[in-house]
Amino acid sequence: MHKGATANGQQHGASRQGYGKTGGPIEKENIPFVDSDHEDDRFASSSVPAPISRISTVDQENDTMTESQENLARAYAARHQPSLAERRMQEKLTVSIDNSINESDLVEEAKDKAMELNLIDERARGLRRNSISLPSLNVNELERLAQQSRDGSVSVIDSESDSLSGETTVTPETPSTPANFKPMLQFNDDSSSDEDDKRRSKNLFRTKRRSSIAPLPALRLNDKEIMSDDFDDLSVLSNQASLTSVNSLVSLLKEKFQNVPAIIRQKKRETQDYKLRAFVCILFLIIVFLVGYAYVMYNQKLLAKSYFENIKFHKKTRNFRLLDGKGSELLTGVLGTSLNIEQPYNCLPKDLKDDGSVCYEWNSKARLYMNVAKSPGPPDIKCYTFHWESLLADLYPTDCFDVSEERGFWYGGGLTKGIDYILGKATIPAGPFVTGDINMHQWGNALKRYFLNSRGVAIQVDEKTPLYVSVNTDSGRRLCLQGRNDKFAFVNRQTQFPELKYTVCSGPDMKTLHNGLMQKSLWDGLTERDNDVIKSLLREPVWQIPASKQEDLTETAIYNYTESIIALGYLRLGHVLVNEFWQRTIGDFRLDTERFPTLDQRVNILHRRGFRVSFMIQPFISTESSNFREAVAKKLLIYERESERSIPALTRYKSTTSAGVLDVTNNASIPWLAEQLKKISETVEIDSYFVDFGTAFNIPRYYQCSQTLGNPDEYKNYFMERFEGTLSIFGVSSAISVPRPPAFLSLPPVNSSWSGLQSIIPTMLSYGIIGFPFLMPGPVGGDFVLPTQQLKKMYSYYSFDLPPLPDKELYIRWLQLATFLPVLRFTHLPSEYGDDTVTTIAKELADVRQRVLPLLERFSSIAMDEGLPIIRPLWMLDSTDVNCFSIDDEFSIGDGMIVAPVLQQGETVREVYLPQGVWKDGIDESLRKGSRWIHNYHVPQNKVAYFIKMPDNTRF
User: Fold this and answer.
1) Composition bias, kind Polar residues: at what positions (predicted)?
2) What does pTM read for this prediction?
3) What CATH number does domain 579-746 carry, 3.40.190.10, 3.20.20.80, 3.50.50.60, 3.50.30.80?
4) How confident is the model over 222-243, as pLDDT tens digits?
């Protein structure tokens, strides 16, 4: 401060300690001055007022006041006589700036003459109770502050807490004129303790803020500059101080609570950042995976080239897909599963074929040829050939195809051990695809290398392929075809190394495809006599003379049995079938004169009565037969392998434990057998023969024929071809190709039980699908009875006893089913029960049979033309109806009748499904609409459910 100011201060020092104009002493009083009111930037955003610095006391000795300043001090002293309550609330002193104060009021109060101050209540009227600290500002800043106050009061809180200790202030400019300065003080009426009064009287102004770093700026009042150290020596290090209001505590708590969400938000922000980082990482990994997957699939698609328009084949993985015209998958699989994953190469020119086949070779291990095959049917059927050539002796080419229900239903092959009509449901380990006995082998007595899918795809395997088949034994549900040589079924190698050759065909639907692939025109070579035999088998029953043992079959037994047939009176006379016991020893090929002394006369009587007599023959010759020695001498039998035809190969057949097999590939064997059968005809007039071939497992294990057989089942084909036109054959026990008409394929023997009854329809349907239109079921009631004790091992040569009289309900339900089958075959007669109920039911079924015959004859002619079966699955009526695909307890006769017999013991109701169309109920003759299920359809014991197809224009 300059000297003039100091002298002036000394000149008026006495007057400060003297009396005022009123004559009273002027007490020493600390006049509060205000500090800067600049807010901190951080609190400005949250509307929290910044603290204001304390004002220290003024040093009396070093201060000089003018007259106007003394008048202002006296006015303040006269006004500031706090009451007890006011002193108690000294700490909560609030200073407010009234928005209504104008500039003239400030001027009046700043005059040298002391004026009477307004009452506190009047001055504080209309002001907010929230306190603000008086800022140390110049006049211009005070005017701006007043302008803000008109919009709303500014409240400044003072807090000595650590949370606000770090705040900073901005030093205001030195005021140039004090004209508008007018301090106004307001006290609260709240009471406080005496102890607080003493403390507050001593320290009217607040202590310094600990964290203040800027010095307290100077205050200019009426051209008098007062420094901070002139007020209070405690304010040297403080740049701001504030007075607390009534709401200071509330404001402090509010500030604290406002800090809590900030901390929470900070933690939440940290948590969100962690989650965001995790999400970004996961998203990055997903993107990498998708990009990699897309890259792999793109390369897979590029490598899966198209062949012949509809085939997709990936050379490296060997994935195979057959597509239809719309690009949908019809067949999927993996080719060459026995190969390691290796990159194939194009075949060398010397290995290429002249037919234009695509050829690939896998590193001197195998070659694959693919080509288009000529369609055997209409032009909408497309076929492709696949031919694997193994280049190693121990490498068996294997192709597997998906047979899960998602890929459609698979049929064909033949009858499986588990009587599986749908092939995809079977479980068959890999084994040779040859005929056998389903009691101990995987496949039944008739096979065909033909597999059909409900999506309109078929697979036909070449007959020269040493075929092994497995179903659902590897990972996944797959049908696997394998070319493999072994020591029995395919011991005679057709090629140096195993090969697998097959054809895949596709059509618009399953029915069209199946019709196109079936063998056509079975009329070729058929004589009028053969046609008569077919009609007679459809119209007349086959009466099989019951004889489990040789001694049971006698001339008298035949006569008595035929007499019982005639006594029935309601069934037609038909074919009398005499089993192999008509000869003393199997292979004699002549009558046993002891048991049949006058059989020729008996047969003549039977002919006159209207019967046809048939004998069962077989190509087996027992070692006990007199013909065995002759056959060995003439080398007419199959011989042991590598024995130079000197040792006959032996096997077992039914009750014969040791027998040789005629070598039908030997040109000398056929004339010899024909001569033996001719001798029988000269003695007894035989109408036809039933040939019992047995199965592939009845051929000697180490067999060798004059001409090499690809597999044991080819023996049947040779036999039928050699005797074509020589013998009249009306039935065969086994086959791998359609026997020449009028020969019917006999179903395998079944047990006399409900399970045996339930196996008939799936067997009929399976054999019809693979191309056998003329089928002959076994006798009503079953073929044999299993022993009471389960055999540890079953052999196909076992001769089981004929069943005793079956249970009455089983016999009736069996007879109801057989009434609708092509051939009605009996062993036990209905009259054996001596029950009028059985007789009545049998008579009613005989009448039903007469109504069924026209359908059987009509569709037998269609079968001769188109190769379609007489007994058909329901999907042949509507191949687009998925409900028809899995039904194996109903069947149709052509497309004119549906039969749904009861196959469960004690049942009188069943579920019936009718395909599209209008059907006439055979029980009550009501009309029923198709494409729906009939639930709980009532079928009494004396009735059988069947429905006749009505014309399409039929209306209810």
Assistant:
1) 44-53, 147-166
2) 0.70
3) 3.20.20.80
4) 444 444 444 444 444 444 444 4
